[in-house]
Amino acid sequence: MTLPASTDSDQPIRKSAQRLRWFVQAFEEQAEQTSRETGTRYTVDHGRLAAVFAQWLKDFQAQKPERDEDKPAYVGFAAGLMLRTLIEMKPVSVAALPGGADTTNPAYFWPEGYLYVVFCLNVRGLVLEGDYHGEQHTSALLNETRTWWSFKENVADDPSLAMAFLDLFAGDEPQWSVPHLFRTGRIRGLADRFYKQETLKAVD
Amino acid sequence: MREQPPIPRLTALQLPLRDALRGVATLAEVTEELLEPAAALLPGTVRDGFRSAVHAIEGAGKRLMTAPITLDSVRASSRVLSQGAGDRDALATMAVVIAYAWEHLRDAGHEHHLMISETMLAGHLASGSSLAGSTAPERAASLVADIAGSAVIGRPPGMPAVGSDADRAAIDTGLVSIMVWLLAMRAETMEEEEKLLDLASALVTAMGEETRAALVDRALLAGHMESLAAHL
Questions:
Q1: Could you name the domain of life of the organism this protein comes from (chain A) (predicted)?
Q2: Within-domain flag for A124
Q3: Which chain B residues contact residue A20 at CB under 8 A?
Q4: pLDDT, tens digit, 9 for 90 and up, residues B82-93
């Protein structure tokens, strides 16, 4: 993904990403690129996109950590918050699928969800790489239709599970229990001893 | 060969004339809406003639009522907020920019017929009382309260009255959007500036609950607008 130019050349990407102008441009560019690659035509509701950003900003600021060592982990959490908000507020609809689209391919099985996931993964990876010299190694599950069935069904029941699924797709350890609660490094170690791992709803 | 006489060029219209045209365009728009049920009773050719006449008046008014603005005038208006009261020219420019932004947002789909008087706005700004405060967000909050509490924006005479709460909400949302836009980091082109103004409006609308809560107190409003501008 090609990111829009930073709104200020001295700003890290994570700061630019907290501006609506950058978010809208990046999302539009992602939608165009995904359309070129898949042949799916999307319609974007810009009013809803602004509402997504506003809701995400409120959620983002509510749990923003103060300790520097927690900030890289918060990048993944913030990307998950964005995916949850996109899925809840549905700013995109599909205008047309290409002829003969194979609906067992995740890109056509759930085209809107596919666009949201690709956007969030791309921004997540670029912030980690650009601002924290980290790397994102996406999982092979990203291309597995069975995982997408589970993803779509689970987030329909509980949109917060989108945050855990994004971790899964990004190759990180998902936090299935209370995924919308950010745990600092110290709290995460303690919490893992108390929260049991929930199993995903099985989809046959 | 005889030299052709120079073709007179249209110059920018003066302030009160632009306000008069705003009234004409707004009334034409509402007249068509009000007479829509009656228009259905007219024969087709008469109805079409009536509609063309109203559209011609509305279109001519809209084309002439908005003074063109430039990147420089937007930047000058932004500087008035950041530096406090500017000279007379800067304040007059700011009145033009705010009126332009108001018309732009209205044309972008805000369903109201509220008219802004550039003449009265210029007078308010020139008096200096509108720009109280020591920071840009404080001055912006002062300007919102001052304009909203005045008759600078309202329904022109002859317009049907609707609920004052709806008008008040539309005025508050429009003014806060314009101030958030002027407080934000400037764009590189006029096209981007107009898009930024639309985004400011979308952001203020999406943060409607927080904006309504902030409007009760000038300091709260200043902080709220500063935060929105930082995220625009």
A1: Bacteria
A2: yes
A3: 199, 202-203, 231-232
A4: 998 678 899 999
